[in-house]
Amino acid sequence: MSHSALKQGLLCCTQCHKTLPHSYDGRPCPRCGTKVHQRRPHSITYSWALLISAAFALIPAYMLPIMTLKSLGQGAPSTIIGGVIDLIEYDMLGIAFVVLTASVIIPLIKVVGMVILLLTVQRGVVTNLHQKMLMYRFVEWIGRWSMLDIFVVAILAAIVQLGNLASINGEVGATAFGAAVILTMLSATVFDTRLIWDKHLQQLEESQ
Amino acid sequence: MPPRSETRHAHRFWACPECDYLMHQRAVPDKQEANCPRCGYTLVARHHRSVERTLALAITGLILFFPANLFPILSLQALGLAQQETIFSSVVALYDSRLYAVSALVLMTAIIVPFIKMLLMVYLSASLMFHRRSRGLSWAMRSYQQLDSWGMLEIYLLGVFVSMIKLVDIAEVTPGIGLYSMAALILTTLITSTQLDQHRFWRRIEQLERAR
């Protein structure tokens, strides 16, 4: 007896959740038209590739300025971390914490979380399966909130346009940060969570 | 659990899309949920009058989309100078800063995706409500599901608050009608996605397309 659909020759369309016989593997789902797979092919490879690209994109994202405030001809470029430090200096601790969470803590948690997931699944670690599932859902849900800093730059650049007096423009760091956010989101999306449970099920089967 | 010979009776079973747990299908009463016993994934969430409610909400969202985009979100006054901001003007500001990719990203996540999601939902729920075999129903539902996490208006709203606080010492910033419309639009979008009974939608789409 097995509790896995795969072992029973069934598979589930990940788009519309229809249960199908395994003969549909690699063919379009009769209900929604998405190509169905028993397990998403090369899921771990794609996930790693996107994750590593995201990690590299984070380096220029934190090093380069994301915007410049030009006031009376003088330019003051600011990085993501610099923006947080400014907020702390102006005693706006609450908002400093929100920005720090969204632009530094969440991206790092996402990368570390995905690395742990991918490594443990690749090595066939069968402990803490529920925690891993929870961690995946958390990473997947929280990822989009990192876009906060991009929107802040967009809004400030639109509204602070007072000619020579003061103007804010976006800088190239924003491109790197945006790329990092998108890449980590995609890295979580392409990961097939069913892989977390497969090794465990295989061992259960063997022990019976 | 079924023996291998029963695989053609796939319609009797549910497989959890997140952990592949296999279970017998059962009827889920109105306003109740069925969760995967192993990983806790919500397999089915029944909502009362899901089709009618999503139609009403999606139409509301579609109407709110216009004031949210046409009226200013924020206005700034400093030393006799005034400046207004709409969602689209923030896209333009990034474009003017020569950040073309980021500008396209904001255009997609803050304007195009929220709009298309509402449009798809009006088309889908209206077709299901009036039992119309419209074209591309499964395509519309699939697109809606895939676009879901790429609409980021609620994050944009948080960005508006952060910007207001950053500017509060420097200039006078006042929220506009656009901001209130955007908040209402976000609320509508969120309620639409919670009231959407995806399981029922897919079954109705399947019935309609089979009858073709």
From TrEMBL, chain A:
Q: Which Pfam families match?
A: PqiA (PF04403)
Keyword ATP-binding among record annotations = no
Q: Name one GO cellular component term.
A: plasma membrane
- Its name, as the record gives it, is Paraquat-inducible membrane protein A
Q: Where are the transmembrane segments?
A: 44-64, 95-121, 142-160, 172-191
Chief place where the protein resides: membrane
Entry's localization field: Cell inner membrane
Q: Look up the domain of life of the source.
A: Bacteria
Which terms are listed as keywords in the entry? Cell inner membrane, Cell membrane, Membrane, Transmembrane, Transmembrane helix
From TrEMBL, chain B:
Q: Which Pfam families match?
A: PqiA (PF04403)
Alphabetized, the UniProt keywords read:
Membrane, Transmembrane, Transmembrane helix
InterPro entries xrefs: PqiA-like
- Give the transmembrane ranges: 55-79, 99-126, 147-165, 177-196
Determine if Acyltransferase is one of this entry's keywords.
no
- According to UniProt, the name of this protein is Paraquat-inducible protein A
UniProt lineage:
Bacteria, Pseudomonadati, Pseudomonadota, Gammaproteobacteria, Oceanospirillales
